[in-house]
Amino acid sequence: MAKVTGIGDLNVFATFIVTPDDSPAVFGLGPIYTAPTASNDALGHGKHEVGVAALTIWTKGIVLVGALVNYQIGVGGDSSKPRTQFIVAQPFVMLQLGQGYYLRSAPIWFFDIEQPTYNVPFGLGAGKVIPTEKIVFNLFIEPQFALALRGIGQPAVQIFAGINMQFKAGRKKKTDQAAHLVNQLKAEQSLRSQMQ
Question: Which domains can be identified in the chain, with CATH numbers?
């Protein structure tokens, strides 16, 4: 297998929170668009893709539970590339341990409707949030094991790790935590949807 480095497809989405600020649960819905900007065929789908993203988050004390789901379908682009239509679901549970440490399970379930291929992993990992004056760093690692999979190139075991940086700007709102979490999870989903 050849090693490929480059730029992937550009993914943009907006989630509009429709629940009140004082609600223990958050629900949001919004549009999603992917542009075929990949510098190599292996790093993207080669299609303009549109769809919808939905989010729900519930918090109680040190526990955060929820899911981020999106559906996308190809609406144009490189005609030599196969049609695209997929669902990406990311259920998550996070348990805060104190001093910025947390446990996480945030596997990304990928269902390619056109192929059809799928990958449904389970993961358990840990992370650390490191706040500084201007940036909040979030480092995590999560081994994941496929409970069900179908298709060539679908990983049976993977280690998902990342660094997320959140830049402090403007006044703080209660929904900022949800917005930051959504951005992190969406970035994880975007990476997984391009791993074909």
Answer: 10-193 (2.40.160)
